[in-house]
Structures are given as C-alpha cells and as structure tokens.
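Fold this: Heavy-metal-binding family protein
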Amino acid sequence: MKKTILMAAAIAGMLLSAVPALAADRTLMLPVAGALADNDAKGRLGDSVRFYFGNQPTPKVLTTLDSEKTSQKTSAFGKTDEKACNWVFLSAMLRLQKHAQDVGANAVVNIVSNYNNIEHASATEFECHAGAIMAGVALKGEFVKIAE
C-alpha cells in the first residue's frame, strides 16, 4: 500500500513539473515582410485593402471609420516558431481585412501589435507569442478611407 502511494506521488510530481515546460511563452519580434512572403499571404490578402504598420506614411486619410483589435491563435505543434507565427499573423491580417471590408474601409492604418493590450508599434516587425502548443498574434488598427 505504501509503495502504491509513493509511486502515485512520484508520478504526480513528475506530471506537475512538466506543466511549466508545456506553458512556455516565448516573445518573438518577426519581420512583417517575411510573414507577407510566407503562406501566399500577399495573394490571399489581395489589394482591395491596403495595410500600414506603425508610423508608416499613408496617402491622405479622408475618413476614419472604426478601430478594432484582433487576437488570433494557431497550433504551434510540430512547427517552428517562425512558421507558426507567420501563419497566425496571416490569420490576424485576414481578420483586419474582413473588418475593413465590412465597414467600407480601403485601408487599415496605424497597425500595432497589441498582445495582452500592450502596444508595440513598428513599421517592420510584429510581435508573436509562441509556446509548445499554441502561437498567438494580436493586432490593432484604424479602419479608414484613403485617397487613391
């Protein structure tokens, strides 16, 4: 009986010590250009909505229609951090595009990473959090009509 209890306690201890390893959360700053070159992102996003990151210069903004956040997750299992992050970045961009189309915007400006509601503005990089099981990207932007 004592052996069974000791064995159960040992197994429980090993399982509990593995939980932090599975919950690893690595913060990565990855290039927007690299993500847009992966997974046929440019082809899938098309050119009906234009995207401007951070403080990138934009054509004249005619009307601001809305602002919105998106937070997307994807499976990271069996993928490199970069591959999982590029995939979930595309998912977040497709959400921004869909919202832009829904509100009649032709551009999303001032796009910033917004993971856990902490903004990181960059014209060239996005923030991704990757773990053993999931990867996530959160973006925030303003939906506008710009001069053509």
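The chain has one domain: 25-146. Residues 14-22 have pLDDT under 50 and may be disordered.
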